[in-house]
Amino acid sequence: MTKYQHQTRLLAAVDCLVFGFDGQHLKILLIKRGFEPMKNQWSLMGGFIQQNESADEAASRILNNLTGLQGVYLEQLRCFADPNRDPIERTISICYFALIDINRYEKQLTDEFHSEWFPLNEMPSLVFDHNDMVELARQNLRYKATLHPILFELLPTKFTLPQLLMLFEDLYGTSLDKRNFSRKILSTGLLLKQKDKNKEGSKKGAFYYKLDKKHYQKNFHKFSYLMPNPNNLL
Amino acid sequence: MTKYQHQTRLLAAVDCLVFGFDGQHLKILLIKRGFEPMKNQWSLMGGFIQQNESADEAASRILNNLTGLQGVYLEQLRCFADPNRDPIERTISICYFALIDINRYEKQLTDEFHSEWFPLNEMPSLVFDHNDMVELARQNLRYKATLHPILFELLPTKFTLPQLLMLFEDLYGTSLDKRNFSRKILSTGLLLKQKDKNKEGSKKGAFYYKLDKKHYQKNFHKFSYLMPNPNNLL
DNA sequence: ACTATTAATTGTCAATTTTACGCTTATTAT
DNA sequence: ATAATAAGCGTAAAATTGACAATTAATAGT
């Protein structure tokens, strides 16, 4: 026996969602779809999985091909497999999301690859079920960011507390007390204060911080619900 | 154009992981694989996705076929798509996990469907990458249960606080103070005290509780990290 | 070179929540 | 009756949170 008999074989694609943060708003990177159907409609970065690559590899390859991005935070969201999600032919899509530092790639993305940033709330309608993917990814990001220090992926290596605050406020659509926010975020022990300041935003300037790589693992989980510390166990 | 040209089509399967709780330990339901390769090896409940069903539908169907389970909590975990995960032919697997009340189905599962429960920590080695799936699902469950009242799916409609405590303790591999646990869990407002007791576990007997369906939505999120309440926003 | 302005940062205190315990209670078996 | 067992209630110190006010550093305008 070399093959499974009598089973349906399907197209498998990967769609990549890219989040960025411009200092004010959480944004999403879109491109105009390059082939039919729905050619020239706004879309996530997508492509078919090849015979000998894993889904993770396909996601990296496709993201790189369509945006030039490489080595960025990339995580599988989930698989979308409605039989009618693609009108041409049944295609399963494995959806990924990436988090990048928007400033680091802005020029290359818009000039070279003709992709465009949209604020999450003022996004055009997308092809197929890509709107659902975005909504799920947004919820997932909110959810995950309550427990994981994942939003730092959206900021430069050196960032300020006001920047971080803005990011949280925009993601959760709320406003937070900066004094309490600072205290809470610093109490995690994840941040290392730098000696220099960022003076773009104010006269006084705000101190830069970096993630403390040494304590990152140890202090990863400064949260609580029913468990004292779910991830330190076992 | 009616088809995408020159693209690889792949087999797509679904694998279902079933969790249960016997009052002492978290358990997982396994069956002996019914066909080659690896026939008669321990495995998750799996099968191929058919032409006109979604992945969710396939998961329900396959779970029902192999265990008789129906209408239970079932959620997609993630997609496993390593090109070599199946030695016969490349097959993408979309992994699902189910949470069930073990007592409700025990007889049907073991007698009729010849599936077997194993404590998560004393599980035999499984076919293909199913071991990875189990490990990921366990982590995911731990993770999710810190923020979502999801573990109730593993208990009968009426359950006691000592039962719930045992479940948390086993999932997180730790011991918790019963007094603090009670206070914390009751403070969520999610539980409704019943008038009758369960006297199986002790002489005194422990009061039954039910989930308060009315307040379930409202009190879903009694937790905090950086956000006052991430899910009530927007 | 002062002064007004702006945003960052530090600080305070009451209220709430958590932690770490001890004690009482209900029930059954001896 | 009473000993044994696990359930359930209580409590005080410690830690965290929430709601604020005050101070500080730097710049820009006069």
Q: Average pLDDT across residues of chain A?
A: 90
Distance between the termini of chain A: 43 Å
**How large is the count of helical segments of chain A?**
6
Q: What does the main sheet of chain A amount to?
A: 7 strands, mixed
Count of strand segments of chain A: 10
Helix % of chain A is 25-40%
Task: Calculate Rg of chain A over CA atoms.
Answer: 20 Å
The largest interface is: A-B, 57 and 57 residues
N-to-C SSE string of chain A, H for helix and E for strand: EEEEHEEHEHEHHEEH
Fold and architecture overview:
Two copies of one chain form a homodimer. With 234 residues, chain A is of the alpha+beta class. The first copy, chain A, contains six helices and ten strands; from the N terminus they run ββββαββαβαβααββα. In chain A, strands 1, 2, 3, 4, 5, 6 and 7 form a seven-stranded mixed beta sheet that branches. A three-stranded antiparallel beta sheet of chain A has the order 8-10-9. In chain A, a hairpin with a 7-residue loop joins strand 9 (191-198) and strand 10. Chain A is elongated, with a radius of gyration of 20 Å. At the A-B interface, strand 1, strand 5, strand 6, helix 3 and helix 5 of A face strand 1, strand 5, strand 6, helix 3 and helix 5 of B. The structure holds a DNA duplex (30 and 30 nucleotides).
Précis, in short:
2 copies of one chain form a homodimer. The first copy, chain A, has 234 residues and is an alpha+beta fold.
